[in-house]
């Protein structure tokens, strides 16, 4: 079996990592706009006040705001059928709790979507992708406050109404399960915090911190469900999905304790998925909360809201797998939001992320077996240091090898019976790393001339992978050489 004829080949970005123009045309500042570039030990720092002597990568990004026509034309040259993009909440509602939207922000995204449509590229729009308005953190303590549900739904109503004839595919929250971990405290949850290192992005896992996370997550579940229902009412052809940070977790060996630990960690793929796809909390929630020693406030009517707001498809990011063991002496590793121990059978990227294409096939089968709805892989890729040759060429065979392996395994998953409908590899154009604020950690098919300190012309150039991916798309996944 081949890839479906209508398979969505494309690429993915996020507004805070590409747009720049952080305070132009009425845009307010987002939480990400308060995060500096990598400093000591690659840590990013969060500052409550924007400091004139600090470097904030999101303030310029790669200047997509002014160069989007050039970039979309390059995507079209590759043959994209889908472009995953996020909307910066603060470009539409600068403070998050504004009564009326910013017209210049609405006009910008309309122009972007029209540019996509000009090339028959389907926009896949992430509504919230680490761009919470800073005012909602400062004034309401972010998603811990239930008022954020109403602010989010006002935002969604504006988007759905404005773009109902331009956008069909939507994602409610990016990697919503990150809010179950400290990595999500600032970017996902928007919790109030002091100035300081933001690499771990949160306080220690005290009972109170865990309670805040899961209360904020519940509010996002309700907001997502309401958005799905609202979107379907505004345009019955809308297809609205969840987006989960996917992780494949293996037991380090056949010790039953390792097997059980790996099984428990695999639930990071299911906890949020169950709520958003099945419309209810999974069976293991009670024991999990009991072990945390927490409880959350669920208001009357919330259970019904979740049941009435099930998503139409499941989407995920996938970069790596890891192993789990009870052996405390095993060598640790980490990547994206996945933590565990090193797998001796796998190689790793320059940043230590273990490369495991077969893990993607395994995970896709597990997810489809559980949910039986269409799936998209909306993030996947290799962060690497690219060398620009004297003639300007960039020979990124390592990126081609990475993507080739994952595309082969996606095809195997389709042959297994998985209803996989799209693939939008991450950072189709070089962008700012969300975890470290770096530019040297590059994912794109398109090189952007900019360094970690923000220096460079921002000129775009095609890598070898650009021409390779063009062949892949033109052949619908048949030509991977």
UniProtKB/TrEMBL annotation:
- Which Gene3D superfamilies did the record assign? Glycosidases (3.20.20.80)
| Recorded GO MF terms | beta-glucosidase activity
Which keywords label this protein?
A: Glycosidase, Hydrolase
The Gene Ontology biological process annotation of the record reads: carbohydrate catabolic process
Give a GO cellular-component term: cytosol
Entry similarity comment: Belongs to the glycosyl hydrolase 1 family.
Q: Which NCBIfam families does the entry link to?
A: PRK09589.1 (NF007154), PRK09852.1 (NF007356)
Query: What is this protein's record name?
Result: 6-phospho-beta-glucosidase
Q: Which organism was this protein described from?
A: Clostridium acidisoli DSM 12555
């Amino acid at each position: 079996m081949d890839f479906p004829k209508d398979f969505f080949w494309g690429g993915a970005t996020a507004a805070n990592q590409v747009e720049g123009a952080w305070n132009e045309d009425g845009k307010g500042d987002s939480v990400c706009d308060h995060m500096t570039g990598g400093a000591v030990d690659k840590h990013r720092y969060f500052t409550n006040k924007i400091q004139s002597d600090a470097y904030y990568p999101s303030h310029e990004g790669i200047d997509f705001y002014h160069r989007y026509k050039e970039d979309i034309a390059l995507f079209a040259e590759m043959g994209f059928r889908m472009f995953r993009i996020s909307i910066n909440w603060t470009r539409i509602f600068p403070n998050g709790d504004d009564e009326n939207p910013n017209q210049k922000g609405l006009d910008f995204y309309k122009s972007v979507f029209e540019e996509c449509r000009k090339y028959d590229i389907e926009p896949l729009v992430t509504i919230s992708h680490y761009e919470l308005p800073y005012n909602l953190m400062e004034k309401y303590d972010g998603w811990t406050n239930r008022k954020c549900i109403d602010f989010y739904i006002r935002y969604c109503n504006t988007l759905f109404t404005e773009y109902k004839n331009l956008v069909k595919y939507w994602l409610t929250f990016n990697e919503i399960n990150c809010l179950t971990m400290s990595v999500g405290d600032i970017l996902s949850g928007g919790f109030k915090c002091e100035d300081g290192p933001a690499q771990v992005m949160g306080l220690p896992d005290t009972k109170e911190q865990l309670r805040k996370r899961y209360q904020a997550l519940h509010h996002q579940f309700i907001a997502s469900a309401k958005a799905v229902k609202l979107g379907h009412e505004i345009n019955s052809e809308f297809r609205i999905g969840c987006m989960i940070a996917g992780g494949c977790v293996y037991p380090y060996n056949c010790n039953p304790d390792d097997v059980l630990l790996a099984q428990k960690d695999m639930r990071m793929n299911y906890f949020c998925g169950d709520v958003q796809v099945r419309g209810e909390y999974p069976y293991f929630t009670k024991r999990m909360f009991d072990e945390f020693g927490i409880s959350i406030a669920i208001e009357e009517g919330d259970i019904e809201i979740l049941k009435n707001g099930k998503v139409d498809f499941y989407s995920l990011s996938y970069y790596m797998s890891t192993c789990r063991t009870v052996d405390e002496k095993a060598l640790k590793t980490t990547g994206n939001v996945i933590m565990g121990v090193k797998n001796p059978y796998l190689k790793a990227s320059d940043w230590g992320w273990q490369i495991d294409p077969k893990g993607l096939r395994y995970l896709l089968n597990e997810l489809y077996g559980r949910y039986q709805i269409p799936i998209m892989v909306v993030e996947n890729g290799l962060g690497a240091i690219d060398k620009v040759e004297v003639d300007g060429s960039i020979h990124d065979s390592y990126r081609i090898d990475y993507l080739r392996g994952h595309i082969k395994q996606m095809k195997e998953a389709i042959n297994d019976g998985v209803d996989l409908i799209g693939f939008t590899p991450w950072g189709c154009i070089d962008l700012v790393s969300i975890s470290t604020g770096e530019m040297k950690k590059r994912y794109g098919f398109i090189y952007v001339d900019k360094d970690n300190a923000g220096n460079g012309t921002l000129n775009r150039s095609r890598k070898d992978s650009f021409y390779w991916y063009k062949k892949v798309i033109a052949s619908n996944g048949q030509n991977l050489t």
